[in-house]
Amino acid sequence: MNFLKPTIFLILCLVTLIRSQPSTLTIAGQIFDQHPMYNNNFEPRGGNLRTGLVEKTLSDNKLPKLISSVTTPDSLNDQGRMVTPALFTYFFSTSGKDLSPNSGANVPIGYDIVLNYDTKKGVYVFDNQAFFPIDERGFDTNKFYRNYTDGSKYHNFHFCLKMNTKFTFQGYEVFNFIGDDDVWVFINNKLAVDLGGLHSRESGSVDLTKLGLTKGVTYDFDFYYCERHTTASTIRIETNMQVFCPFEDYCGVCSGDGSTCCNKATTCNDGKKCTIDACPPPNADIKKSGSKITDADIYPYCSHTDVVCDAPDLCTNNACDENTGNCKTTPITCNDQPAKCLLAQKCDPNSGCIYKSKCDGVCDTGACSNGDCVQKTNNTCANELGNNPCMVYSCGKNGCEAKPKCPQNPATPCDVSYCEAGECKIKHLNATECDCGCDRDDLCHKNNCVDNKCVPIPIDGTDDGNECTEDTCVNGEIFHTPINKCSGCMTCNTKTGDCDLSDKKCQDGNECTSNSCQATDTLGLGECTNTTVVCGATNTDKCIQFSCNETTGCSSSAVVCPNEGNCLVGYCDSNKGCLTKPRSCDTGVFCLVGECIEHAGGCVVYEKRCDADNGKCQQGVCVNGTSTEEGRCKSENYDPLPFICKTAAVVSTAVIAGVTVAGAVALGAFIYGGKRGYDYWKDTRNVQFSGSNSNPLYEQNPNGSGVNPLYNDNSTL
Ligand SMILES: *[C@@H]1O[C@H](CO)[C@@H](O)[C@H](O)[C@H]1NC(C)=O
Ligand SMILES: *[C@@H]1O[C@H](CO)[C@@H](O)[C@H](O)[C@H]1NC(C)=O
Ligand SMILES: *[C@@H]1O[C@H](CO)[C@@H](O)[C@H](O)[C@H]1NC(C)=O
Ligand SMILES: *[C@@H]1O[C@H](CO)[C@@H](O)[C@H](O)[C@H]1NC(C)=O
Ligand SMILES: *[C@@H]1O[C@H](CO)[C@@H](O)[C@H](O)[C@H]1NC(C)=O
Ligand SMILES: *[C@@H]1O[C@H](CO)[C@@H](O)[C@H](O)[C@H]1NC(C)=O
């Protein structure tokens, strides 16, 4: 066949323009090496196939869940040999726990499963009838664990494998599985293959066209497989689904959880007992310093959150103990606050420390300045008692008092002193005047003439001007005795002698309580009321929150709404309060899909996969938008075409139908569709085939067999 050489030449030239079915499909998955010692769901007594063990819907965390959490004799879990249901979660996730019996401890290992394209069947196949991918790895790097055989030869039997991928539905796919033991496959998060339990080889098959999927839509494909028992391990997967990995974790595992290269207890340990160390989210963008990611690369991305110890009330401290890492409660001690003249009284569980001012003496104003009680001045007392210019005011042991400005000299009773508009004057009385006599025995009274009659009056200073004292004089000595008729938080008004309610006496130095003095039924008795201050009582905006601090009082701040998981972002609405909305991961580029994936830790970006008009013969190709044209999907034939698409009829039909075909296919179209078909195609497509008339192929089909030589099964292409 002399035309073959130029054909090869031409095809090679066209290789960059054409698309071929990939010969392998690699899915990076994650293996969790298990051991019967740490998870007794492995190597229990033999069992059988048991469907219905797991819930039919896969949740966002991508961990299958057992339907039942108990195992009683002959129950579902017993039949499925789930000896300890609580350990099921560690089939496909790390426990982060120590190596103690039945702790669920496992060893995560990255694992690539490579499916080969079977051109005859047009499917990708993975087949391994002795599937022991982690011999001498995981736990078994230590010889101590290598106790299981297939009868004669050692193998690492106990492990689980998961692959969390996606695919764009082309409209015709199938998925087949044959093997042992448990297999669960979820498509679009719905259980599609259910081969749970311990069993020898079983098969499961899914025709994806029966699942109600929409062509061109991208769905999740999640595969879970466990090898739980000796002495065989077989697996065969067959599918024409083109699964892809939506993201790789920083360890390089498809949809991995980061556990194959990060261990929170070692990689992320900050040495502090009062922080909770966590590995970075799987989608963290960590730069490797070398060819392999190291703990040092990862450490800066670890998170360390403080252990939160909630205080039961305002009189108890709850703090993390740096030595043990546990929360420890201690009672709050209320200390005096000398700078504020406050003496600690007690602690109130609802409002905190309660104080009493030390400035409650009769001469204290109640104010405090730099730790000292502010005293009443002479002026304060003058104001309090009436500001008589003939009086001098001061504060004494009974509070404010007034003394005469011009006191009588007892030694000269006939020189009567008096005060006129603040000025002291003396009036001389002789012995006969008013018949008072100048040497009298009564030292508590002084002479006074009224209508020429002698009417002695109390000596000056007898009245202190303070209505709250009783004034007495004995042999010329004056006494002011306080009248104790006011009690509790009532104080006596020096000017009027009435009992006044004194709120000042009730102040407890705590801004979160409101204190006042209230009269009781008993005359002269006042009692303090203490109510807890309600901050923001009149506020209606649900996005403002209030709090009270015993020293600074009420304050407000904006409500911070928490996110729910990784893909729901919290925000605040003034009327409704906290709400969530989906996290936007939009890339703005048609061929790059931004998607929030819960188990990835947030946004991931992957190339858009397009479906093709005829998925068996064509590949969907994504075309980015430009300034003038929107992005779109187009279909391009595979080259070489799969056998099923290899008839001239298919090609020429495609050409006539105007399906976009790549150059090499166009040649086939020329050969089998004849010159007319080729010219039609050439005229309608703007292909860069110049001088096709000089093309050595521009002649009639040389072998005339009707079989396309370009796609001959024996072709060396
Ligand atoms: C493996 O077998 C050895 C020898 O019988 C025994 O000492 C060891 O405990 C076994 N290890 C495990 C993990 O069962
Ligand atoms: C206040 O009055 C008292 C008694 O009259 C007097 O001793 C004192 O000096 C006065 N204080 C001031 C600051 O004027
Ligand atoms: C007393 O005073 C009156 C009037 O000032 C005067 O008339 C009288 O002489 C005085 N008597 C004596 C004893 O000084
Ligand atoms: C109010 O507080 C004061 C000061 O702590 C206290 O003596 C009083 O008993 C309290 N009264 C009430 C009604 O709680
Ligand atoms: C109240 O505020 C003070 C000063 O800002 C602060 O030192 C104190 O810790 C706060 N108390 C509480 C219970 O938050
Ligand atoms: C589309 O554009 C983005 C951003 O420029 C680029 O990364 C991506 O590879 C393009 N995809 C295709 C299919 O051209």
From TrEMBL:
Transmembrane segments: 649-672
Keyword annotations of the record: Glycoprotein, Membrane, Signal, Transmembrane, Transmembrane helix
Tagged with keyword Metal-binding: no
A Gene Ontology term for the protein's cellular component: extracellular region
Pfam families reported in the protein's UniProt record: PA14 (PF07691)
Region (Disordered): 692-717
Signal sequence segment: 1-20
Keyword Magnesium among record annotations: no
InterPro entries associated with the record: Fibro_Slime, PA14/GLEYA, PA14_dom, Prespore-cell_inducing_factor
Record-annotated PA14 domain positions: 116-257
PANTHER family named among the record's database cross-references: PROTEIN PSIB-RELATED-RELATED (PTHR31137), PROTEIN PSIH-RELATED (PTHR31137:SF31)
Similarity field: Belongs to the prespore-cell-inducing factor family.
Protein name from the UniProt record: PA14 domain-containing protein
Species the sequence originates in: Dictyostelium firmibasis
